[in-house]
């Protein structure tokens, strides 16, 4: 209990410092955080889009809708549970701005380097059992990824920030890429989500949702 409150205080202090970070002058927003959620699972996105800084939460728009549908369908976890039980991180925490063609700018190597210390610190604090990197940029922070076909649908054991953990990569759920909607991406994404659902750290979260719905249905029966 004491250890948990120490971790909570450490994580809250971390998030406060993260939100004040202004290391990257080309970024177009201040940082976005999913909050100081103590978890055995970290989900790593690429970088927020234009809407996330306004709504002040990661995966707040269309990509998030698809991502949370995956968790609902394969793990039985509602979006509210995913947000309140999984720590959300990203390769870069600020919106990088648009390219001349209108897409979201991919963070530059110096920005990725600047932001990596935040992720390392989070791994040191949380010591997660599972990291789920979402999209190629997030995946390549941990393992080589020349082709999504070679890594999606597989589980890896990696070491980062002095900690060994499981890694289950997912493709980016953004509508910009159809990879996860067509063969073989569709089947590989389903296989990856089944790995996620079976992971003990996720199964423990699914237990939370089931006991919550059991409690709710008992409550309804009593009324
Ligand atoms: S991208 Fe990361 S390192 Fe750069 S300003 Fe935002 S929070 Fe700081």
Whole-number total of structural domains: 1
Sheet with the most strands, sense and barrel status: 5 strands, mixed
Q: Which small compounds were modeled alongside the protein?
A: iron/sulfur cluster
Order of helices and strands: HEHHHEHEHHEEHH
Number of helices: 9
User: Per the principal axes of the C-alpha atoms, what is the gross shape?
Assistant: globular
How many beta-strand runs? 5
Q: What's the gyration radius in Å? A: 17 Å
Q: Could you say what the CATH topology is called?
A: Uracil-DNA Glycosylase, subunit E
Percent of residues in beta strands: 5-15%
Estimated helix fraction: 40-55%
Q: Give me the CATH architecture, please.
A: 3-Layer(aba) Sandwich
What structural class should be given to the helix and strand makeup? alpha/beta
Task: Report, as a whole number of angstroms, the end-to-end distance.
Answer: 34 Å
CATH superfamily (homologous) name: Uracil-DNA glycosylase-like domain
- Physical arrangement of strands within the biggest beta sheet: 2-1-3-5-4
Q: Could you name the ranges where pLDDT drops below 50 across 5 or more consecutive residues?
A: none
Describe this structure in words.
- By secondary structure, the chain is an alpha/beta fold.
- The chain has a single domain (2-222), classed as Uracil-DNA glycosylase-like domain (Uracil-DNA Glycosylase, subunit E, 3-Layer(aba) Sandwich), CATH 3.40.470.
- It has helices at 2-19, 51-55, 62-75, 79-85, 109-126, 136-139, 148-151, 185-198, 200-222; strands at residues 41-45, 87-90, 130-133, 156-160, 163-167.
- The two termini are 34 Å apart.
- The model has no long low-confidence stretch (mean pLDDT 92).
């Amino acid at each position: 209990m004491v250890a948990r409150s120490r971790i909570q205080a450490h994580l809250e202090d971390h998030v406060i410092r993260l939100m004040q970070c202004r290391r990257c002058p080309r970024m177009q927003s201040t940082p976005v955080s999913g909050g100081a959620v103590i978890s055995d699972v970290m989900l790593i996105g690429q970088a927020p889009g234009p809407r996330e800084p306004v709504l002040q939460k990661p995966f707040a728009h269309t990509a998030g809708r698809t991502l949370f549908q995956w968790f609902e369908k394969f793990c039985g976890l509602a979006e509210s549970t995913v947000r309140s039980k999984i720590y959300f991180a990203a390769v870069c925490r600020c919106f990088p701005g648009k390219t001349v063609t209108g897409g979201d700018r991919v963070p530059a190597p110096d920005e990725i380097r600047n932001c990596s210390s935040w992720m390392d610190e989070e791994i040191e604090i949380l010591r997660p059992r599972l990291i789920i990197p979402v999209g190629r940029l997030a995946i390549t922070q941990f393992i080589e990824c020349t082709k999504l076909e070679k890594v999606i649908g597989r589980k890896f054991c990696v070491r980062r920030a002095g900690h060994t953990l499981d890694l289950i990569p997912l493709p980016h759920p953004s509508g910009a890429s159809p990879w996860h909607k067509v063969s073989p991406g569709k089947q590989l994404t389903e296989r990856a989500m089944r790995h996620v659902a079976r992971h003990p750290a996720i199964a423990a979260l699914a237990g939370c949702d089931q006991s919550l719905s059991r409690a709710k249905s008992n409550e309804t029966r009593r009324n």
